[in-house]
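Protein modeling request. Please complete all fields; requests missing the sequence field cannot be processed.
Requester role: graduate student
Desired output: 3D structure, C-alpha cell encoding
Chains: 1
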Amino acid sequence: MPKLVFFLLYLALVVYALVDVIQADEEDLGGIQKGFWVIAIVFLPLAGSIAWIVVSNGARRRRASSGQQVTGFPAGQPAPARYERRVRSWEQDAQPVAPEDDPEFLWLMEQAKRKREREARGRQDAKDDDKSIEDREPTDEI
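Delivered output (142 residues):
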C-alpha cells in the first residue's frame, strides 16, 4: 500500500510539472525553452519535475516581489534581446483591397465578359447560318 501511495505522488508530481510547463509564461522558464523542460521532465521525471518547480517558483516569486518581469537570468547577465517581427517588403505594400479596386481582378472580369460575348456571337452566327441554309431553295447539284 505505501508503494502505491508513493507511486501516485510521484505520478502526480510529474503530471503537475508537465501541465505547469505547458501553461507557463515565458518569464517563468528560467531562460530554457519549453521543449527542453518537457523533455527533461519526461526523460528524468523526478529530477526534471523538481528542477522545474524550483526554477519556476523562484522566477514567479522574484517577479511578484519586484513588480516587474523577471526572465530567470542573474542580475549581472542581460536578458536575451527581443526583436520585433520582421515585415517583408511584399507584406508592407499589401493592403487588403476590395475586388473592384484590384486592377488584376477588373482585367480578369473584362476578359470573362469578352469571352461570353464572343461565345454568344458565335452561337448567334451559327443560328443565322442554319436559317440561311434552310431558306435556300433545294438544288439538284450533288
